[in-house]
Write a structure and sequence with these properties.
Number of strands: 0
Strand content: under 5%
Shape: elongated
Low-confidence stretches: 6-12
Length: 197
């Protein structure tokens, strides 16, 4: 698998539909239902195009799933990473990152990356590679924020990396636990305990 995030299409007749818009719909469908919970009939209905056109544009179901996961990476993972690297107090950025699983849509859908980790990564090399890349992106952003937080030690080191992966483990756990309907106070207590270590 290459590190390219958007496949290069060969020149040819223009599509009669917006490929990015349809890919967004496919992403949301897999995000909501997972790989096995999504049928080809679901995909064609959601895309609003025929099966032949769908396959020609995006490949088979597995290819669509991988492209959807890559799409999520560029939309959500890169956004979370940028927020962790943004201006402002580093502790506030880390707090916001760990609060995301407790808030809004994330609390019902979870993180597509975390879902894919549980759903497909153990059985599919390409999914595993995408999941690991997404986690590494977030871990590196956390390292950056942690190094900024530790004013006396602004150079990232092995300890920051270990802390980053620990926080990322809490993030993934909160994503999963939030989907079970666990009460907010418990989830916030888990977040706060991680922030105070």
């Amino acid at each position: 698998m290459t590190n390219q995030r958007e496949p290069i299409r060969s020149a040819g007749r223009p599509r009669a539909f917006d490929e990015d818009e349809v890919l967004d719909r496919i992403m949301h469908l897999f995000w909501d239902r997972g790989y096995h919970g999504t049928s080809v009939a679901d995909l064609t209905a959601t895309a609003g195009i025929g099966k032949q056109s769908l396959y020609k544009a995006y490949g088979d179901k597995r290819s669509m799933y991988l492209r959807a996961l890559e799409r999520y990476e560029t939309r959500a993972i890169d956004t979370a990473s940028a927020a962790l690297r943004a201006d402002g107090p580093p502790q506030d950025r880390i707090h916001a990152f760990l609060s995301a699983p407790i808030e809004g849509a994330s609390a019902t859908r979870g993180c597509f990356l975390c879902n894919a980790s549980a759903d497909q990564a153990a059985h599919d090399d390409a999914t595993r590679a995408l999941v690991r890349r997404g986690f590494a992106t977030m871990a590196n952003a956390l390292v950056h924020a942690l190094a900024q937080r530790d004013i006396d030690d602004v150079t990232p080191d092995a300890e920051h990396l270990s802390q980053a992966w620990s926080l990322l483990s809490v993030y993934a756990g909160l994503q999963i636990m939030s989907r079970t309907g666990l009460d907010r106070a418990t989830l916030e207590a888990v977040r706060d305990a991680a922030l105070n270590t």
